[in-house]
Amino acid sequence: MSLTAEVLKAYEFQIERLDLIPSHGGTFEFSVDGDLLYSKKETRRHAYAGEIIDLLRAKVGPPKPPPD
User: Fold this and answer.
1) 35 has which bridge partners?
2) Is residue 66 part of a domain?
3) Do 7 and 19 touch, CB atoms closer than 8 A?
4) How far is residue 32's CA from residue 1's CA, in Å, rounded to a whole number?
5) In angstroms, what CA-CA distances link 28 with 31, 45, 58, 61?
6) What is 7-48 written as a DSSP string?
7) What integer pLDDT is reported at residue 30 of this predicted model?
């Protein structure tokens, strides 16, 4: 599963906007509300499976269930 699909699946009822910005050179960064949560450039590695979801959960809390 792609990172985008993983984030959307977990937080689909909380996400108001999701921007995917293409880049070059293998740059990968993940930010929430302007706060950088993960940078491949800084860590010099790609995020592990589930790592971005864990960082997102720490930032915004657990995913919320669908609205009634």
Assistant:
1) 32
2) no
3) no
4) 21
5) 10, 10, 19, 23
6) HHHHHTTT-S-------STT--EEEETTEEEEEHHHHSSPPP
7) 93
56 inside domain: yes
Residue 48 inside a domain? The answer is yes
Q: Report yes or no: 41 and 29 within 8 Å, Cβ to Cβ.
A: yes
CB of 13 closer than 8 Å to CB of 66: yes
| Domain-embedded: residue 32 | yes
17-53 pLDDT tens trace: 888 888 887 788 999 999 999 999 899 998 998 999 9
Average pLDDT score over residue span 45-63: 93
- Domains held by the chain: number: 1
Domain containing 46: what range? 3-60
The structure's pTM equals 0.82
Contact between 9 and 2 under an 8 Å Cβ cutoff? The reply is no
